[in-house]
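Entry for adenosine-5'-diphosphate complex. Fields follow.
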Amino acid sequence: LKMKYNDEQAKRRKLFNEVQEAKGNIRVFCRCRPLSKAEVSDRCSTVIDFDVAKDGELGILNGSSTKKTFKFDRVYTPRDDQGDVYADASPMVISVLDGYNVCIFAYGQTGTGKTFTMEGTKGNRGVNYRTLEELFKIAKERNETFTYDISVSVLEVYNEQIRDLLAPLTTSKKLEIKQAPEGLHHVPGLVEAKVENIEEVWNVLQTGSSARAVGSNNVNEHSSRSHCMLCIMVTAKNLIDGECTKSKLWLVDLAGSERLAKTDVQGERLKEAQNINRSLSALGDVISALANRSSHIPYRNSKLTHLLQDSLGGDSKALMFVQISPSDKDLSETISSLNFATRVRGVELGPVRKQV
Ligand code: ADP
């Protein structure tokens, strides 16, 4: 048993070194979806140049020449599949079993593939399902030296309110974020479903997805204006030395980052737009404060950043997918997403400076 333990420790050191590469900054992977059928029939042209996509570069085309290039940790062309994308995220996912808090989020304009990347489709599953599948696989491989308890919560933040997507529809309690003394943030009353295997996970994710649709007239519109958040909580017990660690992985499909045309926005939609702006700009502010090593990180300015507090900053690991459209008609939103992602990529995480 001791030998097996040493073996595992060696494997984990290797993985740790790979993940170390990710430590110290927020990694940014850029994924471009294919042109849709409608865009093809509307004769939209592609403005993304993947010829420069070596080593994570991507260009914006201006006629036949490349006008501007951006550099990320990875760039996926429309031909790269869900497996390619997950393979690159996997080391970060696995580090949650070793006690790290991790956050993976998809950012971008509505219709660019955030839900496709995170949730995927039944025949072509995304990061959420693949993550849990891999966590169970590794937990099983390590079962002589570790026991893992894995539970999941699925929630939505809409108009600055947290909605539990696993709670029975009849419950309408107001959910607030609390912090245990010196401990992790949590939401008292939120359902934490203990999952033992991947079939149970599938059921839980389905429940979450269908709850999201209930109560909204237009599901697509609703989901583009709310943040959908899956939290995976892991308690690991080392059977050799009895040590116990708790860690958390957030997988977040953010609301669409597009700016709404001013004339379009009134009443309820204005409130929604302001709340989306508020939480996405709060996310930007948290990231800037981390980048500046500021002594105050404004996590509490939005529900989104407050929820992510344990997994964004300090020695946690973060990965952002910036999702883009290839079409000329989306160019200005694409450039604004790529600019945001460039700022995020410059951020060095690390212990937050103590307030004096
Ligand atoms: P978002 O969540 O950003 O609003 P969606 O995930 O709903 O966007 O994607 C919009 C449409 O584009 C969906 O029909 C989706 O299946 C398709 N799509 C997105 N990304 C890809 C991709 N990489 N390959 C194939 N289809 C994609």
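NOTE: DSSP finds ten helices and 16 strands in the chain.
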